[in-house]
Protein backbone atom coordinates (compact mmCIF):
# COMPACT_ATOMS: atom_id res chain seq x y z
CA UNK A 1 0.00 0.00 0.00
CA UNK A 2 2.54 2.52 1.07
CA UNK A 3 5.99 1.03 0.44
CA UNK A 4 6.15 2.63 -3.00
CA UNK A 5 5.07 6.05 -1.74
CA UNK A 6 7.81 8.47 -0.74
CA UNK A 7 7.04 11.79 0.89
CA UNK A 8 5.74 13.79 -2.09
CA UNK A 9 7.61 17.04 -2.65
CA UNK A 10 4.56 19.28 -2.59
CA UNK A 11 2.93 17.88 0.53
CA UNK A 12 3.80 19.78 3.67
CA UNK A 13 2.50 17.13 6.07
CA UNK A 14 2.49 13.49 5.16
CA UNK A 15 1.20 10.75 7.44
CA UNK A 16 2.30 7.22 6.52
CA UNK A 17 1.01 3.95 7.91
CA UNK A 18 0.01 5.51 11.21
CA UNK A 19 -1.10 2.89 13.71
CA UNK A 20 -2.22 3.61 17.27
CA UNK A 21 -2.88 0.89 19.82
CA UNK A 22 -4.13 1.27 23.36
CA UNK A 23 -3.36 -1.19 26.08
CA UNK A 24 -6.67 -1.63 27.92
CA UNK A 25 -7.80 -3.96 30.69
CA UNK A 26 -9.63 -6.05 28.10
CA UNK A 27 -6.65 -6.31 25.76
CA UNK A 28 -4.89 -4.29 23.08
CA UNK A 29 -7.21 -2.14 20.96
CA UNK A 30 -5.99 -0.99 17.54
CA UNK A 31 -7.98 2.20 17.03
CA UNK A 32 -5.97 3.68 14.15
CA UNK A 33 -4.75 1.10 11.67
CA UNK A 34 -2.29 1.87 8.89
CA UNK A 35 -3.68 5.30 8.11
CA UNK A 36 -2.00 7.41 5.41
CA UNK A 37 -2.85 10.88 4.16
CA UNK A 38 -1.09 14.03 3.13
CA UNK A 39 -1.85 17.69 2.69
CA UNK A 40 -0.16 20.39 0.60
CA UNK A 41 0.33 24.09 1.33
CA UNK A 42 -2.90 26.01 0.77
CA UNK A 43 -4.89 22.79 0.54
CA UNK A 44 -7.72 21.52 2.75
CA UNK A 45 -8.01 17.83 3.47
CA UNK A 46 -11.18 16.73 5.23
CA UNK A 47 -11.13 13.61 7.37
CA UNK A 48 -14.65 12.33 7.89
CA UNK A 49 -16.18 9.35 9.66
CA UNK A 50 -18.61 8.43 12.40
CA UNK A 51 -17.81 9.09 16.02
CA UNK A 52 -15.23 6.57 17.26
CA UNK A 53 -13.60 5.96 13.87
CA UNK A 54 -10.19 7.17 15.09
CA UNK A 55 -10.13 10.73 13.76
CA UNK A 56 -9.17 12.50 17.00
CA UNK A 57 -6.73 9.80 18.08
CA UNK A 58 -4.90 10.02 14.76
CA UNK A 59 -4.76 13.84 15.01
CA UNK A 60 -3.41 13.65 18.56
CA UNK A 61 -0.83 11.09 17.42
CA UNK A 62 0.28 13.46 14.64
CA UNK A 63 0.60 16.26 17.21
CA UNK A 64 2.55 14.01 19.58
CA UNK A 65 -0.05 14.54 22.27
CA UNK A 66 -0.99 10.95 23.11
CA UNK A 67 0.39 9.71 26.39
CA UNK A 68 2.59 6.65 25.72
CA UNK A 69 1.71 4.38 27.48
CA UNK A 70 -1.16 3.57 27.31
CA UNK A 71 -0.93 4.51 23.61
CA UNK A 72 1.56 2.89 21.22
CA UNK A 73 2.15 4.87 18.04
CA UNK A 74 3.80 3.51 14.90
CA UNK A 75 4.32 4.90 11.41
CA UNK A 76 5.71 8.12 10.02
CA UNK A 77 4.64 11.73 10.26
CA UNK A 78 6.67 13.75 7.77
CA UNK A 79 6.70 17.50 8.20
CA UNK A 80 8.91 18.87 5.45
CA UNK A 81 11.58 16.21 5.39
CA UNK A 82 11.69 15.17 9.02
CA UNK A 83 9.73 12.39 10.67
CA UNK A 84 8.13 13.81 13.80
CA UNK A 85 7.66 10.36 15.28
CA UNK A 86 11.46 10.06 15.40
CA UNK A 87 11.98 13.56 16.83
CA UNK A 88 13.04 14.25 20.41
CA UNK A 89 10.39 15.46 22.87
CA UNK A 90 11.98 18.96 22.78
CA UNK A 91 11.82 19.05 19.00
CA UNK A 92 8.19 17.96 19.09
CA UNK A 93 7.33 20.70 21.55
CA UNK A 94 9.02 23.24 19.29
CA UNK A 95 7.02 21.98 16.32
CA UNK A 96 3.72 21.98 18.14
CA UNK A 97 2.17 25.41 18.18
CA UNK A 98 4.96 26.78 16.00
CA UNK A 99 4.64 24.76 12.77
CA UNK A 100 1.59 22.62 13.56
CA UNK A 101 -1.47 24.26 15.08
CA UNK A 102 -4.48 22.39 16.38
CA UNK A 103 -8.00 23.43 17.27
CA UNK A 104 -9.31 20.90 19.73
CA UNK A 105 -12.76 19.36 19.81
CA UNK A 106 -14.04 21.05 22.98
CA UNK A 107 -13.19 24.75 23.49
CA UNK A 108 -14.47 24.79 27.07
CA UNK A 109 -12.12 22.11 28.33
CA UNK A 110 -9.26 23.25 26.11
CA UNK A 111 -9.15 26.80 27.48
CA UNK A 112 -7.86 27.27 30.99
CA UNK A 113 -10.74 28.82 33.01
CA UNK A 114 -8.32 30.55 35.39
CA UNK A 115 -6.15 32.37 32.86
CA UNK A 116 -7.13 35.49 30.97
CA UNK A 117 -7.85 35.22 27.27
CA UNK A 118 -4.91 37.54 26.56
CA UNK A 119 -2.53 35.31 28.49
CA UNK A 120 -3.71 32.20 26.65
CA UNK A 121 -3.52 33.80 23.23
CA UNK A 122 -0.03 35.18 23.83
CA UNK A 123 1.54 32.12 25.48
CA UNK A 124 2.63 30.45 22.24
CA UNK A 125 3.88 33.68 20.71
CA UNK A 126 5.93 34.41 23.82
CA UNK A 127 7.30 30.89 24.00
CA UNK A 128 8.03 30.27 20.33
CA UNK A 129 8.70 33.73 18.93
CA UNK A 130 10.11 35.42 22.03
CA UNK A 131 7.83 38.47 21.97
CA UNK A 132 7.40 40.43 25.23
CA UNK A 133 5.68 43.45 26.73
CA UNK A 134 3.71 45.72 24.45
CA UNK A 135 4.77 43.81 21.35
CA UNK A 136 3.26 40.67 22.79
CA UNK A 137 0.10 42.49 23.80
CA UNK A 138 -0.22 44.02 20.34
CA UNK A 139 0.10 40.61 18.75
CA UNK A 140 -2.61 39.19 21.04
CA UNK A 141 -4.95 42.05 20.07
CA UNK A 142 -4.11 41.51 16.41
CA UNK A 143 -4.87 37.79 16.67
CA UNK A 144 -8.21 38.28 18.40
CA UNK A 145 -9.14 40.86 15.78
CA UNK A 146 -8.13 38.47 13.04
CA UNK A 147 -10.61 35.84 14.21
CA UNK A 148 -13.40 38.42 14.39
CA UNK A 149 -13.61 39.24 18.09
CA UNK A 150 -15.00 42.79 18.42
CA UNK A 151 -13.03 45.34 20.49
CA UNK A 152 -10.25 42.81 21.13
CA UNK A 153 -8.09 45.16 23.24
CA UNK A 154 -10.90 45.42 25.79
CA UNK A 155 -11.25 41.68 26.12
CA UNK A 156 -7.68 40.62 26.81
CA UNK A 157 -8.16 40.65 30.57
CA UNK A 158 -11.40 38.67 30.54
CA UNK A 159 -11.71 34.98 31.32
CA UNK A 160 -13.16 32.19 29.13
CA UNK A 161 -16.53 32.11 30.95
CA UNK A 162 -17.12 35.70 29.82
CA UNK A 163 -17.03 34.52 26.19
CA UNK A 164 -19.84 32.78 24.29
CA UNK A 165 -19.26 29.33 22.76
CA UNK A 166 -18.67 30.82 19.32
CA UNK A 167 -16.27 33.43 20.69
CA UNK A 168 -14.36 30.78 22.67
CA UNK A 169 -14.00 28.74 19.51
CA UNK A 170 -12.59 31.84 17.80
CA UNK A 171 -10.12 32.20 20.66
CA UNK A 172 -9.06 28.58 20.15
CA UNK A 173 -8.46 29.33 16.49
CA UNK A 174 -6.49 32.46 17.39
CA UNK A 175 -4.28 30.36 19.67
CA UNK A 176 -3.76 27.74 16.97
CA UNK A 177 -2.89 30.44 14.42
CA UNK A 178 -0.73 32.52 16.76
CA UNK A 179 2.61 31.47 15.27
CA UNK A 180 1.32 31.16 11.71
CA UNK A 181 1.66 27.39 11.50
CA UNK A 182 2.26 25.60 8.21
CA UNK A 183 -0.51 23.17 9.03
CA UNK A 184 -3.69 23.69 11.01
CA UNK A 185 -5.53 20.61 12.28
CA UNK A 186 -9.12 21.52 13.16
CA UNK A 187 -10.90 18.74 15.04
CA UNK A 188 -14.68 19.22 14.98
CA UNK A 189 -13.87 22.93 15.17
CA UNK A 190 -17.42 24.04 14.46
CA UNK A 191 -19.47 21.04 15.60
CA UNK A 192 -20.69 22.60 18.84
CA UNK A 193 -21.67 25.88 17.18
CA UNK A 194 -24.88 27.16 15.65
CA UNK A 195 -25.11 27.20 11.86
CA UNK A 196 -24.45 30.95 11.51
CA UNK A 197 -21.33 30.94 13.68
CA UNK A 198 -20.22 27.77 11.96
CA UNK A 199 -20.46 29.47 8.56
CA UNK A 200 -18.58 32.53 9.86
CA UNK A 201 -15.74 30.43 11.23
CA UNK A 202 -15.46 28.37 8.05
CA UNK A 203 -15.37 31.57 6.03
CA UNK A 204 -12.74 33.02 8.35
CA UNK A 205 -10.49 29.96 8.12
CA UNK A 206 -10.76 29.99 4.34
CA UNK A 207 -9.67 33.60 4.26
CA UNK A 208 -6.78 33.04 6.66
CA UNK A 209 -5.72 30.00 4.72
CA UNK A 210 -5.58 32.01 1.52
CA UNK A 211 -3.60 34.80 3.17
CA UNK A 212 -1.16 32.50 4.94
CA UNK A 213 -0.89 29.60 2.48
CA UNK A 214 -1.60 27.28 5.37
CA UNK A 215 -2.52 23.63 4.90
CA UNK A 216 -5.70 22.67 6.76
CA UNK A 217 -6.79 19.25 7.99
CA UNK A 218 -10.49 19.54 8.73
CA UNK A 219 -11.78 16.72 10.92
CA UNK A 220 -15.52 16.19 11.18
CA UNK A 221 -18.24 13.58 11.48
CA UNK A 222 -20.48 15.87 9.41
CA UNK A 223 -20.06 15.28 5.69
CA UNK A 224 -22.46 18.18 5.14
CA UNK A 225 -19.87 20.88 5.87
CA UNK A 226 -17.13 19.23 3.85
CA UNK A 227 -18.37 20.06 0.34
CA UNK A 228 -17.87 23.77 0.80
CA UNK A 229 -14.41 23.68 2.31
CA UNK A 230 -12.35 20.65 1.31
CA UNK A 231 -10.19 19.99 -1.73
CA UNK A 232 -9.84 16.32 -0.90
CA UNK A 233 -11.63 13.98 1.48
CA UNK A 234 -10.43 10.95 3.38
CA UNK A 235 -13.21 8.76 4.81
CA UNK A 236 -12.41 6.76 7.95
CA UNK A 237 -14.22 3.70 9.20
CA UNK A 238 -13.21 1.65 12.26
CA UNK A 239 -9.68 3.05 12.34
CA UNK A 240 -8.97 2.73 8.63
CA UNK A 241 -9.17 4.98 5.60
CA UNK A 242 -11.81 3.33 3.40
CA UNK A 243 -12.02 5.92 0.63
CA UNK A 244 -10.09 9.00 -0.45
CA UNK A 245 -10.88 11.29 -3.35
CA UNK A 246 -10.97 14.85 -4.62
CA UNK A 247 -14.09 16.36 -3.08
CA UNK A 248 -16.10 16.55 -6.33
CA UNK A 249 -15.36 12.93 -7.21
CA UNK A 250 -16.38 11.80 -3.75
CA UNK A 251 -19.77 13.49 -3.95
CA UNK A 252 -20.41 12.64 -7.59
CA UNK A 253 -19.22 9.06 -7.48
CA UNK A 254 -18.75 7.63 -3.97
CA UNK A 255 -17.47 4.06 -4.27
CA UNK A 256 -17.39 2.62 -0.77
CA UNK A 257 -20.76 1.44 0.53
CA UNK A 258 -19.97 3.28 3.76
CA UNK A 259 -19.39 6.58 1.95
CA UNK A 260 -22.51 5.95 -0.08
CA UNK A 261 -24.38 5.41 3.18
CA UNK A 262 -22.95 8.58 4.71
CA UNK A 263 -23.98 10.61 1.68
CA UNK A 264 -27.40 8.98 1.71
CA UNK A 265 -27.66 10.03 5.34
CA UNK A 266 -27.14 13.71 4.57
CA UNK A 267 -30.14 15.95 5.17
CA UNK A 268 -31.80 16.92 1.91
CA UNK A 269 -31.54 20.63 1.16
CA UNK A 270 -35.06 22.00 1.13
CA UNK A 271 -36.28 18.87 2.89
CA UNK A 272 -38.01 18.79 6.23
CA UNK A 273 -35.35 19.51 8.84
CA UNK A 274 -32.43 17.19 9.39
CA UNK A 275 -34.03 13.80 8.96
CA UNK A 276 -31.19 11.38 8.70
CA UNK A 277 -31.48 8.00 7.08
CA UNK A 278 -28.68 6.50 9.14
CA UNK A 279 -26.62 3.47 8.27
CA UNK A 280 -28.04 0.64 10.35
CA UNK A 281 -25.84 -1.26 12.80
CA UNK A 282 -22.85 -0.19 14.84
CA UNK A 283 -19.13 0.02 14.10
CA UNK A 284 -17.10 -2.95 15.40
CA UNK A 285 -15.47 -3.11 18.82
CA UNK A 286 -11.75 -2.23 18.36
CA UNK A 287 -10.94 -5.27 20.51
CA UNK A 288 -12.86 -7.57 18.16
CA UNK A 289 -12.36 -6.32 14.63
CA UNK A 290 -13.92 -8.55 11.95
CA UNK A 291 -11.18 -10.50 10.13
CA UNK A 292 -12.34 -9.42 6.68
CA UNK A 293 -13.81 -6.08 5.67
CA UNK A 294 -14.58 -4.10 8.80
CA UNK A 295 -17.74 -2.73 7.25
CA UNK A 296 -18.95 -6.19 6.24
CA UNK A 297 -21.45 -6.65 9.11
CA UNK A 298 -23.26 -3.43 8.12
CA UNK A 299 -22.76 -3.54 4.39
CA UNK A 300 -25.84 -3.74 2.19
CA UNK A 301 -23.73 -4.63 -0.82
CA UNK A 302 -21.51 -7.40 0.50
CA UNK A 303 -21.09 -10.05 -2.09
CA UNK A 304 -19.57 -13.25 -0.84
CA UNK A 305 -17.43 -14.98 1.78
CA UNK A 306 -14.41 -13.03 0.60
CA UNK A 307 -15.78 -9.82 2.15
CA UNK A 308 -16.25 -11.63 5.44
CA UNK A 309 -12.87 -13.33 5.67
CA UNK A 310 -10.30 -11.35 3.72
CA UNK A 311 -9.36 -7.71 4.48
CA UNK A 312 -9.67 -5.59 1.32
CA UNK A 313 -6.83 -3.22 0.42
CA UNK A 314 -7.05 0.21 -1.21
CA UNK A 315 -7.14 0.36 -5.00
CA UNK A 316 -7.33 3.22 -7.46
CA UNK A 317 -10.67 3.83 -9.15
CA UNK A 318 -9.90 7.23 -10.67
CA UNK A 319 -7.38 10.09 -10.48
CA UNK A 320 -6.55 10.45 -6.79
CA UNK A 321 -9.61 8.34 -5.96
CA UNK A 322 -8.92 5.19 -3.94
CA UNK A 323 -11.26 2.81 -2.21
CA UNK A 324 -10.98 -0.19 0.14
CA UNK A 325 -13.27 -2.72 -1.54
CA UNK A 326 -12.94 -5.93 -3.52
CA UNK A 327 -15.49 -4.94 -6.10
CA UNK A 328 -16.09 -2.03 -8.36
CA UNK A 329 -19.35 -0.76 -6.94
CA UNK A 330 -19.79 1.59 -9.90
CA UNK A 331 -19.70 -1.17 -12.47
CA UNK A 332 -21.52 -3.66 -10.26
CA UNK A 333 -24.42 -1.24 -10.27
CA UNK A 334 -27.04 -1.51 -7.57
CA UNK A 335 -27.23 -5.29 -7.32
N1 LIG B 1 -7.12 6.48 25.98
C1 LIG B 1 -7.81 5.57 25.31
N2 LIG B 1 -7.79 4.26 25.64
C2 LIG B 1 -8.47 3.33 24.96
N3 LIG B 1 -9.22 3.61 23.88
C3 LIG B 1 -9.29 4.90 23.48
C4 LIG B 1 -8.60 5.94 24.15
N4 LIG B 1 -8.87 7.12 23.52
C5 LIG B 1 -9.69 6.80 22.49
N5 LIG B 1 -9.95 5.48 22.46
C6 LIG B 1 -10.80 4.76 21.49
O1 LIG B 1 -10.31 5.03 20.20
C7 LIG B 1 -11.37 5.01 19.25
C8 LIG B 1 -11.29 6.23 18.38
O2 LIG B 1 -11.59 7.37 19.14
P1 LIG B 1 -11.54 8.83 18.51
O3 LIG B 1 -10.29 9.01 17.73
O4 LIG B 1 -11.76 9.79 19.63
O5 LIG B 1 -12.79 8.80 17.54
P2 LIG B 1 -13.38 10.00 16.66
O6 LIG B 1 -12.56 11.23 16.88
O7 LIG B 1 -13.32 9.51 15.25
O8 LIG B 1 -14.79 10.16 17.12
C9 LIG B 1 -12.65 4.90 20.06
O9 LIG B 1 -13.09 3.55 20.00
C10 LIG B 1 -12.22 5.27 21.45
O10 LIG B 1 -13.01 4.60 22.41
MG1 LIG C 1 -13.17 13.06 17.69
UniProtKB/TrEMBL annotation:
Gene Ontology CC terms, in alphabetical order: plasma membrane
Gene Ontology BP terms: peptide transport
Swiss-Prot/TrEMBL keywords: ATP-binding, Cell membrane, Membrane, Nucleotide-binding, Transport
Primary location group: membrane
Compartments it resides in: Cell membrane
One Pfam match: ABC_tran
Homology family: Belongs to the ABC transporter superfamily.
The name this protein goes by in its record: Oligopeptide transport ATP-binding protein OppD
Species of the source: uncultured Nocardioidaceae bacterium
